[in-house]
Give the backbone structure.
Amino acid sequence: MGLEKQGAKPKGLTGTIIGKMMNRLHTGRYVKYFLKNIPSENSSILDIGCGGGKFLHFLNSLNNGYKLYGLDHSEKMIALAGKVNQREIEKGLVEIKQGSVMELPFANNSLDMVTAFETVQFWPDSLKSFIEVKRVVKPGGKFIIFNYYPKEGTKWWNFAKIKDDKQYKKLLEESGFSSTHCNLQNEKGWIIIESVK
Ligand SMILES: C[S@@+](CC[C@H](N)C(=O)[O-])C[C@H]1O[C@@H](n2cnc3c(N)ncnc32)[C@H](O)[C@@H]1O
């Protein structure tokens, strides 16, 4: 199974190894951002496509009274995220759910923040999935996306469903978010999108 397929839904032993690698390699970037933009105390936060669950572990370590949820459609990632957050799960601080972004197991207007790291390119329908995210975010709540920013002519360009910041903005506006700010870290090949419902 190729890397793209493993990224989309990690499977088998290779999937678990990739999940562990993502935990090591991806998390530093998000940590940097969130240490500068710490979510309010007692926020409820859902990480969609949570992979190996390291980001939830980091958020919990801030000791800010968060109620944290991770969702992923890969059985292997649910198992790994469960292991990584075992103590927090036992204390009722973190819940990991298996499911799809297309049908989030959360009530309308129930979450302060939803995050999505390196995952939106795998979602089957960008507009429908953003509408589903908007449904579960509270009015005034945030949706934060981190993703590789594809360069035209590269493999990533062909692979990425959303090609640039204008497309992100358009889709998020169409799905009902009231404001969207794109922070282009082009030289590093990353984009950070902050939307408010
Ligand atoms: C490249 S990994 C990133 C994992 C983690 N966010 C990180 O940054 O380390 C993408 C993750 O999104 C999950 N994913 C992809 N499509 C999904 C969908 N439709 N619903 C839920 N999870 C999905 C995959 O199973 C995978 O764990």
The first strand starts at residue 44 and ends at 48. Strands lie at 44-48, 67-72, 94-98, 111-117, 137-148, 179-185, 190-196.
